Amino acid sequence: MPVKVETYDRVEEAARALSASRSARFLGGGTLVMRAVNAGDQSFDTIIRLRDPDFRTIRMQGDGLVIGAGVTMAALVANRDAAFLATVARVIGGPAIRNMATVGGNLFASGNYGDLAVALLALGATVQLAGSGSRSMPIDEFLRDRDRDRHATSLVQSVTVPRPRDPAAFRFTKVSRVKPKGVSLMSIAALLPQSGGRVQGARVAYGAMGPTPLRAIAVERALEGQALDAAAIDRAAALAVEGIAPPTDALASSWYRAEVAGVHLKRLLAGERR
Predict the structure, then answer these.
(1) Rounded to an integer, what distance in angstroms lies between the CA atom of residue 98 and that of residue 102?
(2) I need a labelling partner for 114 at 20 to 30 A (CA). Which of 135, 156, 180, 182 fits?
(3) pLDDT at position 38, please?
(4) Are residues 83 and 140 in the same domain?
(5) How far is C-alpha 257 from the chain's CA centre?
(6) Does one domain contain both 188 and 226?
(7) pLDDT tens string 169-209
(8) What DSSP character marks residue 157?
(9) How do beta strands 126-130 and 135-138 pair?
(10) Which of 174, 256, 243, 244 is CA-nearest to residue 211?
(11) Which residues fall within 8 angstroms of residue 255, CB to CB, at 6 or more apart?
(12) Which of 35, 50, 65 is the last residue of a domain?
């Protein structure tokens, strides 16, 4: 089946075209859509492209950062204001992939590839949608509902990310069999702001531990209000997979993920570098 390409100059135009067709797909960097084209995916017949420069910009807004959905991983690494996300962006594929893969595309990546989405979930980002019913929503809600029909024709325009006041409060680790650019067996991101020597507002997120990035609620509760000492870290690590059913795939079994999650979480919370 032939695939046609439509190119638009403004986000609103692309969003309208996407919402008007159930057989269209949006092309950001191409790491997801072009793979589907090459595999002969017959579920779409139109590719929509966007040339709007705002779609690829990063700008400050209050205490946060507004990142266009078309910003690439390489651009994140190069941007001073986004330095807190550079550690994450650097471990997404090799140089060629980082020059293609976009922030918006990573929100739709399957569990083993959505490392940036895991970090954005831990940071409490907000997703701005364009098109029918243009709106902003917490990333928790977006990820929960991303595969449902009501988001299928919405275009992600940007992501707003609160910048950690203390850079040391944000931590990320990627567990992979091939370093540094292998597919994630597991990724963990944590935001651990402290006040008076105690954690206030903990957010901990996992990648490759479910169909989408998810929060480790039991871990967050164990850490909240606690000094980040060895005892608190041990308690949190013991609850690493509480309420979570890790998947089995070609990289690891559910049993293996459950066994090692606490080990990697403990290292991350203790600030150990791997």
Answers:
(1) 8
(2) 135
(3) 87
(4) yes
(5) 19
(6) yes
(7) 999 999 998 876 789 999 999 999 999 999 999 999 999 99
(8) E
(9) antiparallel
(10) 244
(11) none
(12) 50
What per-residue confidence (pLDDT) applies to 69?
A: 96
pTM of the predicted model as reported, rounded to 2 decimal places: 0.94
Tokens standing for residue 32: 């997801």
What is residue 133's predicted lDDT score, i.e. its pLDDT? Answer: 66
In a domain, 99, yes or no: yes
Please tell me whether residues 194 and 252 are part of one structural domain: yes
**What values do phi and psi take at 243, rounded to 5?**
75, 10
Q: Could you please report the per-residue DSSP string of 210-266?
A: SSS-EE-HHHHHHHTTS--SHHHHHHHHHTTTTT------SS--HHHHHHHHHHHHH
Pairing outcome for strands 58-61 and 135-138: unpaired
* Phi, then psi, of 148 in degrees rounded to 5: -85, 160
The predicted pLDDT at position 132 comes to 67
Residue 29: closest CA among 56, 65, 57 = 56
| Full domain range(s) for residue 151 | 53-162
Residue 163 clears pLDDT 90, i.e. is over it:
yes
Domain count, the chain: 3
- Tens of pLDDT, residue by residue over 35-74, are 888 888 888 889 999 999 999 999 999 999 999 999 999 9
Helices 254-269 and 230-238: crossing angle, nearest 10°?
Answer: 160
